Amino acid sequence: MKNIVLIGFMGTGKTSTGRMLAARLGAAFIDMDQRIEEETGMSIPAMFEKKGESFFRSREKQLVRRLSARRNAVISTGGGTVKDPENVAMLHRDGVIICLSASTDAVLERTVRRGQRPVLDRADQGDRREAIEKLMNEREALYKQADFTVDTSELSPLQVVETILRYL
Ligand code: S3P
């Protein structure tokens, strides 16, 4: 089986969907953010704070390189993995790329806890909706590089998995 790669904005359900999809397919599940945290022994917010975003992005790219050399895995990327075109090319080479999308309201609700998403936490609490909309717009074209997209706003993780399985 080719790798199945989930891309998309923060709070679109990449991790929960990926885990369930992998279980359904009997495939390995790899959550990139979690793997980077394990490998560095640091949480992502701590990494951004102590080492800077560029350190995180370089660990992310190293991991993409390693993962694109394997098969039979469901891979949940981080929301910004697609910012680097080389990452997208590597993930596309032997993988089907699926984008999970969601409305601003859904993302706002699902990322409501601060301290977990450093990219959004830079904005003041009141500006969080604006920060989400701005970043979503900036990244729209990047997420469109997927083979197909599933809007998860109104769906449970199980329904998202069923939708993906119909597409595959
Ligand atoms: C990021 C999204 C996060 C994580 C990091 C940066 C982004 O992943 O990789 O905080 O730039 O969108 P999730 O999409 O899993 O929250």
Largest sheet: 5 strands, parallel
User: Which regions are unreliable across 5 or more consecutive residues at pLDDT < 50?
Assistant: none
SS-derived structural category: alpha/beta
Task: Please tell me what the overall shape is.
Answer: globular
Please name the defining characteristics of this protein.
Rossmann fold, alpha/beta, 9 helices, binds shikimate-3-phosphate, 5-stranded parallel β-sheet
Write the topology of this structure:
Blueprint: E1 3-8, H1 14-25, E2 28-31, H2 32-40, H3 44-50, H4 53-67, E3 73-76, H5 85-93, E4 95-101, H6 104-110, H7 118-121, H8 128-143, E5 148-151, H9 157-167
Parallel strand pairs: 1-3, 1-4, 2-3, 4-5
Helix pairs in contact: 1-9, 2-4, 3-4, 4-5, 6-8
The structure holds shikimate-3-phosphate.
Subunit structure: Monomer.
Binding site for substrate: 33, 57, 79, 139
Protein name: Shikimate kinase
Description:
InterPro entries: P-loop_NTPase, Shikimate/glucono_kinase, Shikimate_kinase/TSH1, Shikimate_kinase_CS. It catalyses: shikimate + ATP = 3-phosphoshikimate + ADP + H(+). Its EC number is 2.7.1.71. Substrate binds at residues 33, 57, 79, 139. It is an enzyme of class 2 (transferase). The protein has 168 residues and is α/β, with parallel strands linked by helices. The chain has one domain (3-160): P-loop containing nucleotide triphosphate hydrolases (Rossmann fold). Helix content is 54%, strand content 15%. It is built from 9 helices and 5 strands, in the order βαβαααβαβαααβα. It has helices at 14-25, 32-40, 44-50, 53-67, 85-93, 104-110, 118-121, 128-143, 157-167; strands at 3-8, 28-31, 73-76, 95-101, 148-151. Strands 2-3-1-4-5 form a 5-stranded parallel β-sheet. Helix 4 (53-67) packs parallel to helix 5. It is globular and about 45 Å long. It starts with a strand and ends with a helix. The mean pLDDT is 95. The structure holds shikimate-3-phosphate (S3P). Shikimate-3-phosphate is lined by residues 10, 14, 33, 44, 78-80, 117-119.
